[in-house]
Design brief:
The chain is an all-alpha fold. It contains nine helices and two strands, in the order H-H-H-H-H-H-H-E-H-H-E. Helix 2 crosses helix 9. The longest helix has 21 residues. The two termini are 19 Å apart. Hydrolysis of the deoxyribose N-glycosidic bond to excise 3-methyladenine from the damaged DNA polymer formed by alkylation lesions. It comes from Lysinibacillus halotolerans. Keywords: DNA damage, DNA repair, Hydrolase, Metal-binding, Zinc.
C-alpha cells in the first residue's frame, strides 16, 4: 500500500492531485494565476469542493487567461454568477477579474509572475520535515508577508491562510509528511 499524507481521501481525483500536483514546483505564470484564483475560491470551503469544480472553472474563466478576463463585461460576470459549475459568490467572481488586472501589472513590472511570487521563498522550494499533519502550519511569516504584498499590489482573497495553501499547492513549500511517498526524502 502506498503511504500518502493523511488528508488524502480514497477519491481518485484527490489521489491524483496529491500524487502529481500538490507540492510540485510550478513556474508557469498561467498555472500560478489559476491556482491563486482557485485558492481564493476555496475561502470558507474545502479544497475538495474546488478541486471537483476545477474543470468547470477553467471553462468558465477562459482557462484563466488574464488578458481575456480583464475584458469581461457585466453580462459575462452575470453569466458567471449564474453558473452552477463554479462557486457563485459575487465577490469571489469579481476577485478573479481584479486579480487578473493585478497579475498583468506584476508581469509587466517583474517580467513574470513566477519571478515575483517565487521571490518570497528566495526562488527555492522550502522542504519541511513534518512527522504528522498536525505539525503543518496554516500560516507562516512568509505567507503573512506574501499576503500583505499581494494585497498592496491589488489582489483580493489573498489572506495569509490562502497564501500558505497556495504555497503548498504550487510547490513553494513541500509539506508532504515524512511517511508520505511524495516527501523528497522518500524519493532519493
Amino acid at each position: 500500500m502506498t503511504n500518502r499524507c493523511h488528508w488524502v481521501t480514497k477519491e481518485p481525483l484527490y489521489i491524483q492531485y496529491h500524487d502529481n500536483e500538490w507540492g510540485v514546483p510550478v513556474y508557469d505564470d498561467q498555472k500560478l494565476f489559476e491556482m491563486l484564483c482557485l485558492e481564493g475560491a476555496q475561502a470558507g470551503l474545502s479544497w475538495w469542493t474546488i478541486l471537483q469544480k476545477r474543470e468547470n472553472y477553467r471553462v468558465a474563466f477562459d482557462n484563466f487567461d488574464a488578458e481575456k478576463i480583464v475584458r469581461y463585461t457585466e453580462e459575462k460576470l452575470q453569466e458567471l454568477k449564474e453558473n452552477p459549475g463554479i462557486v457563485r459568490n459575487k465577490l469571489k467572481i469579481q476577485s478573479v477579474v481584479t486579480n487578473a488586472k493585478a497579475f498583468l501589472k506584476i508581469q509587466e513590472q517583474y517580467g513574470s509572475f513566477a519571478k515575483y511570487i517565487w521571490s518570497f521563498v528566495n526562488h527555492q522550494p522550502i522542504i519541511n520535515h513534518w512527522a504528522s499533519v498536525k505539525e503543518v502550519p496554516v500560516t507562516t511569516e512568509i505567507s503573512d508577508a506574501m499576503s500583505k504584498k499581494l494585497k498592496k499590489d491589488g489582489f483580493k482573497f489573498v489572506g495569509s491562510t490562502i497564501c500558505y495553501s497556495y504555497m503548498q499547492a504550487v510547490g513553494m513549500v513541500n509539506d508532504h509528511t515524512l511517511q508520505c511517498f511524495c516527501h523528497l526524502s522518500n524519493n532519493s
